[in-house]
């Protein structure tokens, strides 16, 4: 699969949706509140379970493995600022 803006947009949309669901679960489920789990951890668990390495329900692209390297470079690049 080629890298295109649409692939990036789709992956970011899926991640954003997972974060929204994680926030809703964090706010509504008492058991999760008692565990003090942040919404990002809940979203990550859902993404792992529903993504290509789990049940395969979420259509993440093959490029999703590249995003953390790019984002951590941005973080370290702006750190001196």
Give structural notes.
There is one protein chain. Helices cover 67% and strands 0% of the residues. The protein has helices at residues 5-28, 30-35, 39-50, 67-78. Helix 1 crosses helix 3 (39-50). The model has no long low-confidence stretch (mean pLDDT 94). The chain has 81 residues and is mainly α. The radius of gyration is 15 Å and the shape is globular.
Could you write a compact summary of the structure shown?
By secondary structure, the chain is mainly alpha-helical. The protein has helices spanning 5-28, 30-35, 39-50, 67-78.
How much of the residues is beta strand, in percent?
A: under 5%
CA radius of gyration? 15 Å
- How far apart the termini lie comes to 36 Å
Helix content: 55-70%
Give the total of beta strands.
0
Tally of DSSP helical segments: 4
Keywords:
81 residues; mainly alpha; 4 helices; 67% helix
Q: How is this fold's topology laid out?
A:
Elements: H1 5-28, H2 30-35, H3 39-50, H4 67-78
């Amino acid at each position: 699969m080629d890298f295109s803006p649409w692939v990036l947009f789709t992956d970011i949309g899926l991640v954003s949706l997972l974060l929204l669901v994680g926030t809703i679960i964090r706010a509504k489920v008492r058991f999760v509140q008692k565990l003090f789990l942040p919404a990002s951890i809940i979203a990550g668990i859902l993404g792992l379970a529903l993504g290509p390495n789990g049940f395969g329900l979420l259509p993440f692209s093959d490029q999703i493995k590249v995003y953390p390297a790019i984002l951590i470079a941005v973080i370290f690049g702006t750190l001196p600022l």
